[in-house]
Amino acid sequence: xxxxxxxxxxxxxxxxxxVNVQDMRVGPNYQDLLTEMMKKTTLLFDLCNSDTVHLPIxxxxxxxxxxxxxxxxxxxLVVPCLVQLYEAYHQDGMLEGEVIGLIKVWAGFRENYExxxxxxxxxxxxxxxxxxxxxxxxxxxxxxxxxxxxxxxVKNMLQILNAYLLANGSAPDLxxxxxxxxxQLLEILDCCQDIYTRVHATRVLATLSxxxxxxxxLRKEATLKVLQKLxxxxxxxxxxxxxxxxxxxxxEAGLIQAADLQSVIVELLSEKFAAASSPSVxxxxxxxxxxxxxxxxxxxxAIFSQADPAQKVLDAWTTYQPxxxxxxxxxxxxLGLLKVFNLCLEVAxxxx
Length: 352
What we know:
Oligomer: single chain
Strand content: under 5%
Structural class: mainly alpha
């Protein structure tokens, strides 16, 4: 069935208001077929075990991606199934990714009230429980926070939350939730040691900074404190996948306007270049450097007039530039690399 869904273009095969030329009656349209197929697919979950449940999960994911309006028609039926799937398989190494992927598709639907009513309270409870356990010094609380991180509960909820925010973050009724969430995530990043939690907390903060800018400005001191930690040499490289994105988001939000602060950030980024061993991490750093160079070229490029940091940046950047993913990222970082390279040539020529 999944293969059939992938190959069949339902929108083209069953357009809206299509008339059968033989009896001049309006035939079925793709939205009616989609809702019916999703209803039938949800019935399969009760008949499946861990060896076969991936088939209806994959099928429901493909069907939901075809048309949002059709999916929302059966939200009351599908969302409870998503909850059951998450509770049953969120710790299953083979199925966790597929279940979270399906939930993220539904999280990305606009005005999905069934999803909001069901999942946002669960996300809020999870983040609050983890935050409280992390801040409490008692052995029981520390054990609980470590257990939640090891089981992947926090990272999964943050992934789902980020998908929801990208589609629905502008809703005005979410502001009270944002106020609490930002405070919690800033404190989590300040003291958390789990790599995956750090990665996804950073990503959610980057998303929030674009849709709730005034709330970050009110917390500027705490925000810059966390930013300083993210850029410190002691911060684990594996946790830094979205640090570059967060820097750009903060700059766009007006949190990093001072020219001297931007210069310090570029200097810290140049130091982290040498230690970076992941293309995705280094791409984020490179994009952030490109952004700040564009904001104030003369001031930001001054750091690369020094031989040692310039050599470290060029060595790492040229090594990983060919494997950066994304056309826009490749073009932006390539232009930034050319600027740095040309500046280094000018400095070398001046030194003779």
